[in-house]
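hiii, so i know i said id send this last week but things got crazy w the move. better late than never?? heres the sequnce for the chain we talked about at the cafe, plus the structure i predicted for it. fair warning i was half asleep when i ran it
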Amino acid sequence: NDNRVVLRTALILYGKNEHERLPMASTTKIMTAIILVENVSDLSKEIEVVKEAAMVGGSSLELKTGDKITYEGLLYGLLLCSGNDAAAQIAISMAGSIEEFADLMNAKAYSLGLKDTHFITPHGLDEEGHYTTAYELAVIADYALNMQKIAEVVSTKNYTIAVNGYPRALTNTNELLGYLEGVNGVKTGFTHNAGRCLVTSAIRDNFNIITVVLGADTKKIRTRDSINLIEYVYKNYKLINLEDRVEEAYQNWKLVNENRIEITKGIQTSKIEVKLGKIKYTKYPIRKESLENINIDIKTYKLKLNAPVKENYQLANIIISIDNKEIMRVPIEIKKEIAKKGIKEYIIETLELLSN
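okay and structure toks below
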């Protein structure tokens, strides 16, 4: 009952100090965008910029006190040109203050199961106690990219918004967008304390990856490291469809075993049905040299059972291994509960036999 959400299962293909708590500068704004998009139903709503937001330093959308801008304009200003003023205005408009908005951010981090992330501000300017890890920032980015509006904004290189009814052209600060094949986001960051940061999303041949670089000394280094990570994955890994292989194994098992299931003393109105349980990984990245080393085994348990038998009772497990290392088990289960016969059922059976 703690309202935590279920995330897509993601795998770490390469990590170095990925669980170390570090400042993350403007990559903070990914979470700011999540809070905005999840909680404001009408992004076309126009708001007035307050002095507190207009005075925030660092990277800026160049908002002035009294300016009129929509939430959508603020979202583009937040994620494209990394406007600290846009972040502050979003926070104040939505929650009344920076502090109360940070509470929303931290509540969301908790709901995502993050244990090493804590927010003080919506923009990421250096503050003690404002931190995340490379791994948890990747989780945040993954969650954000499942939101269509955010995915659309972070993949945009150039965009024009309106401030006071006048057009204002914005250019994305992400140096890899439009430069490296497949890159479709996400967010840059820089402060003196955090160094150069970059969260990148890329897709090639339907293979999605997210890379996170924190604490780089220069922009050149963060760019180089991000490119190296992306090219390393696509050079060495292939995304395979495990769901199809599991389904094939299940159908073969079902053909042989479904009619062999016996449930003694059970109330059965029709044929006993089975089903495939939850698949943890529908697709799985595998090193290319291991493509011939995928093994699927099925372990079958008792097929002769005594009623009652609960729904989802496990009859067998499909076991998937790569290089002799087990990566997943998928259960084969009883589809519907089968209750135990009572006196009433036995009387009915007896009457039916006598009538025949």
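btw The first helix runs from residue 29 to 39. thought thatd interest u
miss u guys!!
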